[in-house]
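#struct-help
A.M.: can someone run this one for me? Single chain, 179 residues.
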Amino acid sequence: MPATFNLEDIRRVLDGTPAVLRAVLTPLPPHLLDANEGEGTWNPMQVVAHLAWGEQDDWIPRIRKTLELGDAEPYTPFDREKGFDVYRGWPLDRLLDEFARLRQASLQALDSLSLQPSDLGRRGRHPELGAVTMEQLIATWVTSDCAHLVQIARILTKHHGQFAGPWRRYFSLLRDTPQ
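D.P.: on it. Structure tokens below:
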């Protein structure tokens, strides 16, 4: 069966992301919250800060701009790492609470727009990618959530997997990591 875009399915994933992050990250000790995959990669705290900043400066502002201006004016460039500065020093619980609050506000804003199927083809303008559709923008929002959940799982897999001995060969994520 071919995949179809389903805004309700997307909304369910977006709504669940804060709880997934809380369940995975809250029990972790600080050294795992600071773990990353090497030089130039993010740790779980940075991922949450990035997601929280995206709720303020990326998804809903771009959806609104698409509805108001179409592709006449490009979206404001999104600083993917600005959340690192905005949320620097925040403890995990406070950061997770803030992300959950911001995500709920975003979903309420999305609901208030009452998007119709005809809105999904409306075009906006990405500053680097050019013309994009509302459907692509919203699909990217949920894809971003899923990719960042995988990123955190990958960090934890690589951290713990280094101690898995001969079982490492069963995990594709561990094949190219040092033992």
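A.M.: thanks! The chain has a mean pLDDT of 96.
D.P.: also worth noting: The beta strands are 123-126, 130-133.
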